[in-house]
Design a protein that fits this description.
mainly alpha; 16 helices; disordered C terminus; 287 residues; globular; 68% helix; single chain; Hypothetical protein af1432
């Protein structure tokens, strides 16, 4: 293994980018029928911040529950184990990366874009009737996570990339390949794999820039690609038809959603975004 591989970079920063023990404990419990909902709820309630964030997001428009949910056990019953794991992971990750130096990245802007993308990816997946669409929420939230590893581990080269790109996101991956030897998408996929997360997630992130290269989880990769383009277009205040005109025919044929469906979905994303952003955020630094 050489020092210029994405895998090596992730291994070097393993301690810095490790997930909290509670995530692994809950992952094991939610996958084991020996543990009841009350057992799982008991572990979560020992972490007041995590409990508060879970209840906040489950009670938001994002889930659209009719009656207020005020206990963790009820929240688990409503959203299910699979979605619970995704939400716990999402909140854990935001906290894991809240100590990144601000020299290269405005972390509030980073999470604003990532959460925007997460909300859009989940809504796209839901509209496409994807089972356990929370995994696309995670994919959206994590698609750019490799950039944070690059900023932390090789700040000088990362700065070179950012200066050369001059705020044009479309140039970043090519410049990373040229200057660093691999992209933030590859680093993100390696990090996801090091955490032992599903292949669907790592493959979607590895190929979100080039979804046509995805081998097994093609729909996820194309949905994530579309979500990132829509999120960026929204940030530039571009209209949906203008954004979709630049999306490949392959993506549009795989996703199979009309322009009007996507426009409606983007309006809904605006309504849901703020609540998800506030729910996932690590305290005041996220406001």
């Amino acid at each position: 293994m050489t020092e210029n591989t994405a895998k090596y970079l992730v291994q070097e920063g393993q301690e810095l980018f490790s997930l909290p023990d509670i995530y692994y404990q809950l992952r094991e419990m939610t996958g084991n029928p020996r543990f009841s909902i009350n057992d799982i709820a008991l572990v979560i309630t020992k972490d007041p911040a995590l409990s508060a964030r879970l209840l906040k997001i489950v009670n938001s428009a994002f889930y659209g529950c009719q009656a207020r949910i005020d206990t963790i056990s009820r929240a688990i019953t409503v959203i299910g184990n699979e979605n619970l794991r995704s939400l716990i992971l999402a909140t854990s990750i935001v906290n894991t990366f809240n100590r990144i130096p601000h020299d290269l990245v405005d972390m509030t802007a980073f999470w604003l874009r990532s959460v925007n993308c997460a909300v859009i990816a989940r809504l796209l997946a839901k509209k496409c009737a994807v089972l356990h669409c929370e995994r696309l929420l995670l994919a959206g939230l994590l698609h750019d996570i490799g950039s944070l590893v690059l900023y932390t581990q090789i700040p000088d080269k990362s700065l070179q990339v950012l200066l050369a790109a001059d705020h044009n996101r479309g140039l970043v991956a090519g410049l990373e390949q040229e200057i660093i030897g691999f992209t933030h998408a590859q680093v993100g996929a390696e990090l996801i794999e090091s955490w032992g997360l599903p292949d669907s997630l790592s493959e979607a992130i590895r190929y979100y820039l080039t979804p046509e290269k995805a081998l097994v989880h093609k729909l996820d990769a194309h949905l994530l690609y579309l979500a990132t383009r829509l999120a960026d277009g929204k940030g530039q205040q571009r209209a949906v038809p203008e954004i979709l005109a630049e999306i490949s025919d392959e993506t549009l044929s795989i996703v199979r959603l009309s322009e009007s469906q996507i426009a409606e979905l983007m309006n809904r994303a605006d309504n849901e975004f703020e609540q998800v952003f506030e729910s996932l955020g690590p305290g005041k630094r996220f406001h």
